[in-house]
Amino acid sequence: MDYQRAQEIVNSPSEYEVSYNGVSIWIDKLHDDHKTATVHLRRSLEERSEVDVAELKEEYKVH
């Protein structure tokens, strides 16, 4: 995913399904370097990781 699309998803009032390495995640924060984001697994609010935005994949929009 590119940084601009990640930013659109974060700022959207709609909910999107996003994955990292095949695992469903939430994007918590996009970093100023425009290359990384802090994410957490949808099922665990406590485990956060910093990942490359390019490795995020948009799956679909949740209705």
TrEMBL record:
GO terms for cellular component: endospore-forming forespore. Pfam families: SspH. It is found in: Spore core. Induction: Expressed only in the forespore compartment of sporulating cells. The keyword Membrane does not apply. Belongs to the SspH family. This is Small, acid-soluble spore protein H. It comes from Lysinibacillus odysseyi 34hs-1 = NBRC 100172.
